[in-house]
């Protein structure tokens, strides 16, 4: 019997699940084990896992005092880098990696990024082991107030918005982060949208229109981001086979 590699997933909030990415990883041959420290789960040792996936959440990457597990998650990130464990961070997870490794994160002075945004790949992305095959025109869902304001010195910028905001980075040879949300569909986004509806009205943003646009782009988004999960799974399997 073939033993499937196992991905440890850190979930920070019940409204921010692994979603589509979890299903894609499973289909690509990985077992997904979700740890929910906000619900009392103890963060496990990384030695039992073949990869680390850190999800998004409503808190900030610097909110260690309010959310006691964030500092230990940053320790896991540093341990994963030292052990060359394949690691991917999504939104908050991406920001936690940046802070753990010496970068900075803060509120985007231009305001919330929300809806479908084009990905502005850099030249470095074309040769990246994970992102290289994806480095063609595509859109992703972003729904974030904070951004990485300074990457760690060792990081490589892989994608940015037209305004220079970080969208993707390689933090170590086997460690990446994306500001966008490849894991979400409209059912996951709906409670986020309801929480933001008032602020959107103030800013003249059509919240329901955003959800309709994202729902209409479902096939496009699946085609764009399923390959990210598949490529990550391939790296996980390669490391597990050593």
Amino-to-carboxy terminus distance: 17 Å
**Corresponding CATH superfamily:** Class I glutamine amidotransferase (GATase) domain
| Broad CATH class | Alpha Beta
**Uncertain residue segments:** none
Give the overall silhouette. globular
- For the biggest β-sheet, the strand order reads 2-1-3-4-11-10-9
The helix fraction, in percent, is 25-40%
Structural class: alpha/beta
Order of helices and strands: EHEEHEHEEEEEEEHHH
CATH topology: Rossmann fold
From the 3D coordinates, which CATH architecture would you assign? Answer: 3-Layer(aba) Sandwich
Number of domains: 1
Please report the total strand number as a whole number: 11
Quaternary status: single chain
CA gyration radius, whole angstroms? 17 Å
Report the average pLDDT across residues.
Answer: 97
């Amino acid at each position: 019997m073939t033993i499937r590699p196992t991905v440890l997933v850190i979930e920070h909030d019940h409204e921010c699940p692994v979603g589509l990415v979890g299903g894609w990883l499973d289909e690509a041959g990985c077992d997904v084990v979700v740890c929910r420290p906000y619900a009392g789960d103890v963060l496990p040792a990384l030695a039992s896992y073949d990869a680390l996936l850190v999800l998004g959440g409503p808190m900030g990457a610097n909110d260690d005092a309010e959310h006691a597990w964030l500092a230990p998650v940053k320790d896991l990130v540093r341990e994963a880098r030292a052990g060359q464990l394949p690691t991917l961070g999504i939104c908050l997870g991406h920001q936690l990696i940046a802070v753990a490794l010496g970068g900075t994160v803060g509120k985007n002075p231009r305001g919330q990024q929300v809806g479908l945004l084009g990905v502005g790949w850099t030249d470095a992305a074309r040769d990246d082991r994970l992102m290289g095959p994806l480095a063609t025109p595509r859109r992703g869902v972003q729904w974030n107030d904070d951004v990485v304001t300074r990457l760690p010195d060792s990081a490589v910028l892989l994608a940015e918005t037209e305004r220079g905001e970080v969208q993707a980075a390689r933090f170590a040879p086997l460690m990446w982060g994306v500001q966008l949300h490849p894991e979400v569909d409209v059912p996951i986004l709906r409670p986020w949208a309801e929480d933001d509806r008032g602020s959107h009205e103030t800013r003249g943003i059509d919240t329901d229109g955003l959800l309709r646009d994202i729902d209409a782009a479902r096939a496009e988004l699946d085609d764009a981001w399923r390959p990210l999960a598949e490529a990550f799974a391939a790296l996980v399997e390669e490391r597990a086979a050593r």
